[in-house]
Specification:
Blueprint: H1 2-12, H2 14-27, H3 39-51, H4 53-59, H5 62-78, H6 83-103, H7 110-147
Length: about 160
Amino acid sequence: MIAVRLVRLIEQHSDDLTEGLLRKFQSSPRTSDLKKVPEHELRARSHEIICNLSDWLLSKADSDVERRYRAIGELRASQDVSLAHVCWGIMLTKEHIWNFLQREGFLRGPLEIFGEMELLRLLDQFFDRAICYTAEGYEAAKLAAMSSPPQRSRSVPAASAS
């Protein structure tokens, strides 16, 4: 299967792809809120996707994607990162991976084109679901934060002036 071979190529270049993706996050005004995320965390999440892309695309169930990306949405909401910036980060990740494949020059013949179309379909399906589940997790976290009563600070009552 050509898609598997292309995914393996992406995984082999995961370190370089991760670093390039982080540079895009830092330079894009659409992802500027991601600066609120600790760099080591953003690097780990980006590397996790790129390095394990074959698992995410070919063997993870939809429930795995849902669980992971709902958690990411909740986390980004708690970090006060704009939902739009989170979604743009996911879109940049997909575009970054696709641009890598285009730079590698795989559009050579019908078989390669078919493999790239298959991979594009898998990437679209994965990243589209990732965005939706992230938004669901984000919204659930924001709703929970709004519905929970504000925490009162425990202060010692002032002594009366008697």
